[in-house]
Amino acid sequence: MTTASQTTPAALPEQTPPAPWLPVAAGAVTLVMWASAFVVIRHVAHDVSPGALGSGRLLVAALVVLPLVLRRGWVRPTGREWALLALGGLGWFGVYNLALNAGERHVDAGTAAMIIQIGPVIVALLAVPLFGERLHAWLLAGMVVGFAGVAVIARGSSTDADASLLGVVLVLVAAAMYAVGVLTQKVLLRRLPSVQVVLVSFVIGAVTCLPLSGDLPGIVADGGAELWWIVYLGVFPTAVAFTTWAYALTHTDAGALSLTTFLVPLIATFIAWVAIDEVPPSLTFVGGALAIVGVLMTRRKPKPAPLAG
């Protein structure tokens, strides 16, 4: 009888790594789906209320993810974890969707995608008081550059100054709520399965949006194009894209993969140009570049102080 200590490597089951192109393809599919969401929201923003668009999208996503949770099994959250789930669901999936959907009534899809890129800067800022991370010079400089990029975007996003400013502020609120969601999930995923965290967040976000979703029953009853765009948002950029992203993350370097999200604004701008004949003003690209540079600066780590003696 072979004991565990006597088991040879040849006796262990070998896991065949996936073909090199599969994680790359999964990451690419994710980026295109996320980018397409900005364009679809922009396309239907004036025909569907922000609440109906958010709640419908999240309810569809929850139905897609539910079988995965049932198969995986339920892990009972603690009281603290329920509080974090509520905060993340309310912020990232509830307020985020309301703010983004309303914001895209006033700014184009490419501009919205660029402003959302400031989210990691807010994450880095909030991580200082919440997780005791160091407030170093690169973080401060990155914050200044990143928010300067948002200011440039606000200046160049539209000839209607009031409308563009409102849209930029709303999308900036969405970026801040994204940061809240990332920070809460950072704690929750230490013990809870990711599909369970996502499902609960979807449901809480949908409930948050429902009071502002008075037109949703009519959209469902009508069965028109607006309903199918909502279904698309729930299935592909929300449920499927998170799954393909998790697969890509499992088989590639996390740091390198996270940098690819900077391609989302460019992809969104291209899709918007082809699909709805919409291109952001040139100044918006300058602001987007500054925002991305700001994020990269916040990710730089200061050199450790030399030891005394």
Can you give a write-up of this model?
The chain is mainly α and 309 residues long. Helix content is 73%, strand content 0%. It has helices at residues 21-44, 50-72, 79-103, 109-116, 119-131, 137-156, 161-188, 194-209, 216-222, 225-251, 254-259, 264-276, 282-298.
Summary, kept brief:
With 309 residues, the chain is mainly α. It has 13 helices and no strands.
Number of separate strands: 0
Q: Report the structural category.
A: mainly alpha
Amount of beta strand: under 5%
Largest sheet: none
H and E string: HHHHHHHHHHHHH
Report the C-alpha radius of gyration, rounded. Answer: 21 Å
Number of continuous helical runs: 13
What distance separates the N and C termini? Answer: 57 Å
Overview features:
single chain, 309 residues, 13 helices, mainly alpha, disordered N terminus, globular
What topology emerges from the helices and strands here?
Blueprint (H helix, E strand, L loop, with lengths): L20 H24 L5 H23 L6 H25 L5 H8 L2 H13 L5 H20 L4 H28 L5 H16 L6 H7 L2 H27 L2 H6 L4 H13 L5 H17 L11
Helix pairs in contact: 1-4, 1-10, 1-12, 2-3, 2-8, 2-10, 3-7, 3-8, 4-7, 4-12, 5-6, 5-7, 6-7, 6-13
